[in-house]
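Sample entry as discussed:
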Amino acid sequence: MRVLVTGGAGFIGSNFVLRARQTRPDWQLTVVDALTYAGSRASLDPVAGEIRFVEGNIADEALIDPLVAEHDAVVHFAAESHNDNSLDNPWPFVESNVIGTYRILEAVRRHGVRLHHISTDEVYGDLELDDPNRFTEATPVNPSSPYSSTKASADLLVRAWIRSFRIAATLSNCSNNYGPRQHVEKFIPRQITGILTGVKPKLYGSGENVRDWIHVDDHNDAVVAILEQGRLGETYLIGADGEKNNKEIIALLLELMDKPADWFEHVDDRPGHDLRYAIDSSKLRAETGWQPQYSDIRSGLRNTIDWYAAHVEWWAGAKRDAEAVYARLGR
């Protein structure tokens, strides 16, 4: 199968490409990526000779249309995804997440190509900390940031093209990913790389905000399962029952990295910071048989810490840039 991976030099996309080379060696993979600050060709170095790479913006119709026409399937990861950046400047999120998705949809419609669209649980808003419920495929969208609202917009566009134009597509909304090759602006790698360089972790507000964490390899295995077994037109939620609040994550990182339990500092909370995300992935598991391999978050964090410790050259420059942005934002 000829598969086009949008955003394939980013965190989840690059890990998808590496994982697919291991588990689906017969796939012919093409990556298209704009190589913004969050994308890295170096993330694809282990398979550079085995894939095709195209640098470009998914909002560029002249680039995207012929690329899509050459493939049997598109796995659409490309997105601007950092909440803090969306609060600072929403336009790149509108361009990539909304207009870019529109370009992909029109191309798959013209050429009859299978699409799997990657989204986030943040489109559903948040849950109260003491709410026993979890997000399901029937949960109404209720986004709370420019990032999540543009992802919700993209999801709605995909569903409209499925119904109006009968494109062959599936969608997935996943909980918070962690793992190797994640940009150091994000919560877990920011703390890991900080500790590695002698800087105390930063905890937003009280640290009670809960995320449903999943290792990136588990997410990508689920995407392959949906691509191969999912029912066209359906949405699947991907989660690994990994609910932890931010304070618990920092405590685990400090323990695993041999630091005192109180070796962190509080910073001002993010505006509109969602309280809790929680995923019910029973539909995915029942229909595909997928199960996470990192069911214990400790083992997943150990894997992640070891990768960052061994790849300082991959993140050192980005770390300086990210911390300069956080300093400007007061976080």
Notes: Residues 2-185+213-242+274-296 form a domain with the Rossmann fold fold (CATH 3.40.50.720). The mean pLDDT is 95. The longest helix spans residues 91-111. The chain has eleven helices and 13 strands.
